[in-house]
Amino acid sequence: MDGQNDILIIGGGMAGLSAATALAGAGAGVTVLDKGRGPGGRMAARRAEIGGEPASFDHGAQYFTARDPAFRDAVADWETAGVAARWPAAGADAWVGTPGMNAPIRAMAEGLDVRWNVRAERLGRDGALWRVEAGEVVFRAATVLVAVPAEQAAVLLAEPAPGFAARAAAVTSAPCWAVMAGFAQGLPLADTFRADNGPVSWAARNSAKPGRCGGETWVIHASPARSRELIDLPKDEAARLLLADFFAVTGTALAVPQHLDAHRWLYAQPEARKGEGPLFDAGLQIGIAGDWLRSPRVEGAWLSGRALADQVLQERRASTS
């Protein structure tokens, strides 16, 4: 039993931590639960040792842009703190976390009560409070905010908030196989490759990003169609096939990697209704946020979480005035 919380946020990715940061900054008591072992979510970074040297891979989101004034201010703060930097190779307005894509998430989480490796399995009412069951631990809170991928939100909310669950269930997310490859020598390619058609939608020389360690490292993202074709393969087999795709589409001579790994993102790219805001039921004190409710980008997730926090704070001010 973990006792009673004021606001409990399920999901410690960009949307959840954006909401938590705004709420905690306004004086609310906030606890965040996340099933991951540490900060990252779809902005994850993975470390490896290649040829006796440390290396890193951003195997989720590759970069982000900042166009909304509020998000630009947040990114400027991250740059000042040394956890974000511009990456012109991906575009004039492209940013990356430093030394990994998860650095902004890690920095946001540091000032908050975040419980990693805690999976919310069931959500229901317990009198006037919400009850969240996470294995043998039970959390209770006056307000619950859910900031997880749509497919996961649909399952968690099916009983306690069927209207929200239906909205989440209407979203379809495209999968993505991500390959992480390290080579002894540099490949004769530009730092980024992208294509609208074919088996590979994106590839980047990860070691060319600001603040990265290691030698020649690449991250390769399969297209949604190719990812679906390979969705059930073991990761070693998927990695070999996609690496061959990469050399074929770039016209580069095959090079044997020193390191080869893959990760399957089942909910990589959600369909989102651009401009749609988060949802909050003031009567039940439950809300949902995420990039799938705004736009399928890092900025969309941040804006959705911040907007949900604003709704909660506005409702609280109105109820006490």
The CATH superfamily of the largest domain is FAD/NAD(P)-binding domain
Topology as H/E string? EHEEEHEEHEEEEHHEEEEHHEEEH
Named CATH architecture of the largest domain: 3-Layer(bba) Sandwich
Instruction: Give the strand content.
Output: 25-35%
Report the major sheet.
8 strands, mixed
Query: Helical content, roughly?
Result: 25-40%
CATH class of the largest domain: Alpha Beta
Whole-number average pLDDT? 93
In terms of per-residue confidence, which ranges show pLDDT below 50 for 5 or more consecutive residues?
none
Terminal Cα span: 34 Å
What's the domain count? 2
What is the gist of this entry?
With 321 residues, the chain is α+β, with helices and mostly antiparallel strands. 29% of the residues lie in helices and 30% in strands. It is built from 8 helices and 17 strands.
Q: What do you see in this structure?
A:
The protein is an alpha+beta fold. The chain has two domains: 4-44 and 102-171 and 272-320, 3-Layer(bba) Sandwich (FAD/NAD(P)-binding domain), CATH 3.50.50; 173-270, Alpha-Beta Complex (Polyamine Oxidase, Chain A, domain 2). Helix content is 29%, strand content 30%. The protein has eight helices and 17 strands. A hairpin with a 2-residue loop joins strand 9 (129-134) and strand 10 (137-146). The mean pLDDT is 93.
